[in-house]
Design a protein that fits this description.
Layout (H helix, E strand, L loop, with lengths): L15 H5 L6 H23 L7 H66 L9 E11 L2 E10 L7 E12 L5 E5 L3 E5 L2 E9 L5 E10 L6 E8 L2
Antiparallel strand pairs: 1-2, 2-6, 3-4, 3-5, 3-7, 7-8
């Protein structure tokens, strides 16, 4: 048998080349598509079974509107909170101011109590020792009037103030030169621990006042509570 023996006929296949070049799908591409399909299916399953339901367009719009309403309410509440905070600061400031005024008033009361204690020590006592003492007085007769400044004090520590009148019984001389004594209109008073009584009362025309008896009564024409005789300047 020779190497180049030509006993057999050579057969040419017409489409052999074309069949060898035909395209087929790679296996990796099949596995990739299968993985995508499985992932999409799993995602859909999770969405339907475990995740919250998806909102429709109407539901989404309603949710947005509700969110805007809540934001508006939040801004309103914040404004109210800011206003309340400002009012609280104002109240604290006002409280501080009132506390300062109260402290000042207490100091004033303390000074008055000190003054009263000084009156008791320095001024001569009412010699008659009545319920209401006439501790000091300044009387001036001028221009047809009796100007008076009288300091009244009370014995004891009654919380209720004494209410009554002060009468001025004035001795002097009339325009004719005749000596006379006149009683002027009573002056209403209210006396706590002490009371300054100031003012003026008219005198008869031409009357010259020399001496005045200061009388403290529980009412006009009533019971005598204190008395003192003072010369008129």
């Amino acid at each position: 048998m020779g190497l180049f023996r030509r006993d057999r006929p050579v057969v040419f296949e017409r489409y052999a080349y074309g069949r060898r070049r035909s395209w087929s799908v790679p296996p990796w591409l099949l596995w990739l598509g299968l993985g995508i399909a499985i992932g999409a299916g799993g995602l859909y399953y999770l969405q339907e079974e475990y995740l919250p339901p998806r909102l429709s367009a109407a539901e989404s719009g309603e949710l947005q509107a509700r969110l805007g309403e809540l934001e508006s309410q939040s801004k309103g509440l914040q404004a109210a909170l800011d206003k309340a905070s400002g009012e609280a600061r104002s109240a604290r400031d006002e409280s501080g101011r009132l506390a300062a005024e109260l402290a000042s008033a207490r100091e004033a009361v303390q000074r008055l109590q000190t003054d009263l204690a000084l009156f008791d020590e320095v001024l001569p006592p009412d010699p008659r020792g009545g319920a209401v003492g006439v501790r000091a007085a300044k009387l001036v007769g001028d221009d047809g009037k009796l100007a008076y400044h009288v300091l009244l004090t009370r014995s004891g520590k009654s919380a209720k103030p004494f209410r009554g009148v002060v009468e001025f019984v004035v001795a002097g001389e009339r325009a004719s030169g005749r000596s006379d004594t006149i009683t002027l209109e009573p002056v209403e008073v209210s006396v706590g621990a002490y009371q300054h009584v100031q003012g003026s009362l008219p005198l008869p025309a031409g009357f010259v006042a020399r001496q005045t008896t200061i009388r403290v009564l529980d009412r006009a024409g009533g019971t005598l509570q204190g008395m003192r005789v003072i010369n008129v300047r």
